Amino acid sequence: MNWEVVIGLEAHVQLATQSKIFSSSSTQYGATPNTQANEVDMALPGSLPVLNRQAVEHAIRFGLAIGATVSPRSIFARKNYFYPDLPKNYQISQYEIPVVLGGTLPCFVDGKALTFNLTRAHLEEDAGKSIHENFATPDGRPCSGIDLNRSGTPLLEIVSEPEMRSAAQAVAYARALHALVVWLGICDGNMQEGSFRIDANVSVRPKGQAAFGTRTETKNVNSFRFLERAISYEIRRQIELIEDGGKVVQETRLYDADRDETRSMRSKEDAHDYRYFPDPDLPPLIITPAWIAQVKDSMPELPKERRHRFVEDLGLSSEDAAQLCQDRQIAQYFEAVANALPNGQAKLAANWVMGEVAAALNREEKDIDACPLSAGALAKLLARISDGTISNKIAREIFTDMWANSTLDADAIIEAKGLKQISDSSAIGAMVDEVIASQPAIVQEYRAGKQKAFNSLVGQVMKLAKGKANPAQVNDLLKQRLDG
Amino acid sequence: MALFLDQYADIIALRQALDNKQISVKELTQTLLGEIKHHANLNAFVDVQADLSLAQAEIAEQSIACGQAGALTGIPLAHKDIFVTEGWRTTAGSRMLADYRSPFDATVVQALLKAQTVSLGKLSCDEFAMGSGNEHAATGPVRNPWDLDVVPGGSSGGSAAAVAAGLVLGATGTDTGGSVRQPAALSGICGIKPTYGVASRFGMIAYASSLDQAGVMARSAADLALLLDAISGFDPRDATSIETCRAVANAPGRILSDYTRFNNRNNTQPLAGLRIGVPNEYFGDGLNNDVAQAIDQALVVLESLGAKRVSISLPNTALSIPAYYVIAPAEASSNLARYDAVRYGHRTETYTDLADMSARSRTEGFGEEVRKRIMIGTYVLSHGYYDAYYLQAQRVRRLIAQDFQRAFADQCDVIMGPVTPTVAPAIGSLSTDPTAEWLGDIYTLSVNLAGLPGLSVPCGFAPGHRSQPLPVGLQMIGNYFDEGRLLAVAHQFQLVTDWHQRRPGAPT
């Protein structure tokens, strides 16, 4: 049978705020356990939550960026369930009326542009952490510990419509979402530290069937690679199960990266009755048009706007523009390089930023803000390619030197090492003559019709010129002499 | 029982004695601490820490010495044990928090400390403020100074008993469904709860967050005005606290300024033009005749001051009981979930796993009334019942609020009636009928559901279960932010009556 896959994603995005969503404790990651938890985070008697405006503004930013409706009035509700790292034993979340409704997210899958719809995004607080390993009582008995530093960290839960039809599409959506929230400055995007977490709802149905199959929810996926694997595993598992006559059970599953499989965590029968009701400690969240306008004014240029500008104004292809705009810093770096070059050289800048620069950063696991070459320095180097002073190949060598020592200047290196390209026709002509004279056998081959022999002769000339001869001129002159 | 404070009519009188150095704050404090010990049979205090009280007395005394005393400097108070306090234990009347000590003070406690009052300790209350007789306290029932066999009312029963006995001049209370007004009425003192949001809830252990409001209890309306003004004010730590009341900043000074303005009419008819709405529904079946008569007498007195009595209707009054006993338990079931024995509070001796630990600890730590309300609240919020109970109760709540707004729109300026259907019942008599205690809240609940200010002043006596005379309270309900006017009307009433000056004799 032909199966169709249906995937919807829920992302928990940790909002980049100084303090927690309902308390003044710091949200800094990695502090000594329970040192960043005040009376609100520990749910001491008499404590009350007060909403953090910054978290709301981050949600508004997101809503504006995806073209969603920002609710003028949204409600915080209590989700009631007992868990030891949930100090109040209820989570403050938004239920019936979330802060962000709808919206769309464009992304590229195999070079094809796709747009996915979002259902909603709502604000909520994170729970603390239970620590079960390597933990003991003062007298040495094993026990569990609780760290409430994360308790109350602001989250934006972003829910997509079930519109993805493959693991690749789901990963593309997740990557685009990740890039967007980092771009907007509302999330640090650190997946290792749990700042961006994805749950995947997966089901399968026979192609052509309208009704959805029974879905499972896979949690605990902390990288895009694992997301792809977890979804692929789950798709395979569900299809095999059904084809063997079984039935998919609605349940929550956990992805185990070590064994590359998903495991059942709890089934629908164990599902909680969360007894949601509006939190009487928090008045409705009112967002006025004036507040939205104020947030809008403070927003960076959106990726789609910048992509558009790169295509229209700089003449890049939409693929190049999309790739550069996956990261705001990279887009900014690229733009600075392109602006420092003569008109029409944006493509050269794009090739270098996506090529040499990206590769070097990757190799050293560095972010663009840690790039040893300033945009200005790179632009100077590229300017020497575009004005014919050096070839691409020589430029790569200079780039390596500049990468190792950021105080070096492209022109200084060219000068010091004598790397200036030879564009003097008589000098190149002399070298061409020398090669023709010294390689009669190859010349013979060329004349007999072997095109390959020509390239070999070009190589010989370049070797003689120590790579500095202008390749176009070498070609022209060699052809003239041989065919003339 | 001739008590030291009996020689001072009110806060102003004691303030004068302190300023004139007739007595020092420390002497006063020491004397009262002794009397508290001597009257331990009332069971009103649950924690007394002499050194902490004396340290506060020291500060007040220095301030008097420097000539920097305020209207409340050195005044002896105590706090309902639902307010968290640094130093004193905070138990909320529960075994669950028997040894709990808060690392911070409630905003209301802080405000009174800033006003240089002296706290003499913590006062018993019904467990988590759930109850109307102070019989649901882990430390046992509190006794009414007018008759040790009857309840003082609840849930702020310790506060009412301590003020009525003359052990303190004022006390804090909280009012979720009548818990300030009802014990004030049953104990023959004055009590006010302001508009929801006027006093901060930060540091007030939550029972039902949308209904809970701090209040104060004292001997006279004039004293209430001073105390309530001091605890009022916007608090950035409470998202439901109010920033402005009818374009006036919610801050100390607002209530006193209204109070003074309404009092300064300077004629023989100080209440001329005041329309008193008397709801038909507050005088139906269930209201004791003697209580009804005392209320009527009080209204006659108010008419003699120029007020006009207007008959009004609050048609949804009877629905306030079911609405309240859905909404309050619903919120309580969630508010009390934090008491799980994980971070603080009572933890059972033996348990098999985490769920068992929490379940056993909660069963042991909570009393019967609290467990009952948690069960009801959990039920009404459950999937499939939420619409029928919780949402329906919220609709009724809106109707009740609309009833009041209709009356205030064009019929009356204040609403008056009884606080309770009867005088204080005998200790132990409520437990035989579990709903009797709830039905007794009929006149007070709707004020909380609507979020309005309400006060209670003594207005006479009626025979108790042994025909002994017990206090009756007159309830005054105002529109939002009308605290100052309510207190002024009560003050005018007290200028021509002496019910509030009656002290319990040697209890029998």
Describe the structure.
With 484 residues, chain A is of the alpha+beta class. Chain A has three domains: 3-294, no CATH class; 301-417, no CATH class; 425-483, Arc Repressor Mutant, subunit A. Chain A is 39% helix and 20% strand. Chain A has helices at residues 53-65, 167-183, 224-243, 289-297, 303-314, 318-324, 328-339, 346-363, 375-386, 392-404, 410-417, 425-438, 440-447, 451-464, 471-483; strands spanning 3-14, 69-70, 73-74, 76-80, 90-94, 100-101, 104-109, 112-125, 129-131, 145-147, 154-160, 196-206, 216-221, 251-256, 261-267, 277-278, 285-286. In chain A, strands 1, 2, 6, 7, 8, 11, 12, 13, 14 and 15 form a ten-stranded mixed sheet that branches. In chain A, α5 (303-314) crosses α6 (318-324), α7 (328-339) packs across α8 and α13 (440-447) packs antiparallel against α14 (451-464). The radius of gyration of chain A is 30 Å and the shape is elongated. Chain A starts with a strand and ends with a helix. The model of chain A has no long low-confidence stretch (mean pLDDT 92). The relative contact order of chain B is 0.14. Chain B is built from 16 helices and 13 strands. Chain B has one domain: Amidase signature (AS) enzymes (Alpha-Beta Complex), CATH 3.90.1300.10. In chain B, the strands form two sheets. Chain B has an eleven-stranded mixed sheet, sandwiched between helices. A two-stranded antiparallel ribbon of chain B has the order 7-8. The mean pLDDT of chain B is 96. With 508 residues, chain B is an alpha/beta fold. At the A-B interface, loops of A face α10 and α11 of B.
